[in-house]
Every structure is written in C-alpha cells, then in structure tokens.
Amino acid sequence: MKKFKAFVKEPENISILIPNEIIENEKLGVHRNYLYAYLYICRGYDGISRFSFEDIFMFAGYKDFKAVGSAKEKIRESLDKFIEQGIFEPITGNVYGNKFISGILKLNYTNAESYVMINLDILNKIMRHRERKVRYTLLNFYLYLLSKMRPLDEKGYNMGFYSYLGMLEQVFHMDFRQVKTYIDKLEYMKLMKTKALPRYRDVLGCWHTNMRLFVRTESSMSDEKVDKLLKLCEKNMIQNRKRHESALFK
To answer: Which superkingdom heads the taxonomic lineage of this protein's source (predicted)?
Structure first.
C-alpha cells in the first residue's frame, strides 16, 4: 500500500469536506476532525477508504510509529465511536486485527452551510505545527471558527464572523489566556486575522465587551486585502446589530 506520508507531498491541492456535526461533537474525541479528514482523503474512486492504522500517524507527521504514545489509544477511541455512530462502516471484519483496513465513510452534506472545506495544504500546515501537543486542538479550533463564518460579500469566497471570546471559552473549556493563545497561533500561521472591538452599549443599556472579528486569510493575501476584509466584516456586524435592535421595538 502506498504510504500516505509520501502522498501528502503531492503538489495537487485536495479539498476536504468535514461536516459540522463532526466539528461540533466533542464526544467523538479531540482527534475526530483529523481522523475524519484522513479517512476522507483515503477514499478511492469506489468510495472506499483503505488505510493502515500506522499510516494514520505517519500522515499526522510522526516519523516513528513507536513514538506515537497515548495518541494511539485516543485515535482508536475516536475510530470506535465513528463505527458505533455509523460515521464509518468497516468492510474489514476485525479492524485492529488486520494490517490494512477498509470501510465506507459517511458523507452527510445537506447544504453549503452543513460542512467546512479545508485544503490539504492547510491541514498539513496545522498538523506539522512545531508543538505536537497542540496540533489536534489547533485544527479543531480552526475548523470551528470556519464553521461559524459566512460570506462577507456576493462573491461568497471571503468569509468572516464576529463573536464574544467568552463563547469560545465555553466551547473549548478554556480560559481567556488559552483562547487567545490559539488565536495568536492561527494568526501567526496566516490562516486567520482577528480584530478586537471596543465595548459598546446597546439600546437596552447593556454593555458588550470582548467582542472580536474573525476573517479567513491566506498567506498570499496582502495586508491591504486583509484590512479590507476586517472592515467589511465590521460593517456587516454593525448592520446586523442595527437590524436586531430595530426588531426589538417593532
């Protein structure tokens, strides 16, 4: 079988579609999004994913299967839950008793807002992060933010959204400092750009603090382009806020 460590070095940029139901279901484990992406890439023309358990980790950047450690059991736990919930239907009788595994990955995409698309080069970039312990959570963090983004213009390519940092603290069970650390990592990798907003008082007299804009970026984007996206995102936020406040008095 062709090793996927070699495969990920191919120049073609494959798009991976990950359903929101996977991204938001933390009961599937911290490795769920990476595992789903891997199984997605392994699909052949017949729709069947073929892989070895060892290749899962080689694809994640490990050079030695013996160095995987506790991640091995966590991946197995996620794969078991995929099987239990019908996300992955194995064709191989004994999944862990065979060197090579095959099965069918459930693809549940009802509309454009039911999944997140991530390119293989970005997945590789995150999974090659120098801090191995943060890779899977960083991927989950990035995908969650993308799942909340909506088109900023009619073209539909430029994406962004706004949120309270407190919401991210609750979703990822982190404190403010930890959330800020992951945001900083994504910005450093030029995968996202954010902007902290000043607090404001709404028409009901309530103060809103720790709000932040998020826009999807690429390494090739100029600073001018990124600034335009942030301004567009802020404009959309203000318009939505005004519509919401107007509706309160109708």
So the answer is: Bacteria
Of 87, 39, 82, the closest CA to residue 60 belongs to 39
Contact in structure between 143 and 191 (CB atoms under 8 Å):
no
Q: How far is CA 82 from CA 77, 78, 79, 153, 222, in A?
A: 9, 6, 5, 36, 40
C-alpha 198/C-alpha 218 separation (Å) is 26
- Report the C-alpha gap between 37 and 15 in whole angstroms: 10
pTM of the model: 0.87
Determine contact, residues 56/6, Cβ cutoff 8 Å.
Answer: no
Distance from C-alpha of 145 to C-alpha of 139, rounded to nearest angstrom: 10
State CA 57 to chain mean position distance. 18
Each residue's pLDDT tens digit, 5-54: 434 444 457 899 999 999 999 999 999 999 999 999 999 888 899 888 88
> Per-domain residue ranges for the chain?
1-148, 152-247
Nearest to 211 by CA among 203, 202, 219: 202
Return the H-helix or E-strand segment holding 100.
strand 100-105
Supply φ then ψ for residue 10, to 5 degrees: -60, 145
Helices and strands, counts by H and E, the chain: 10, 11
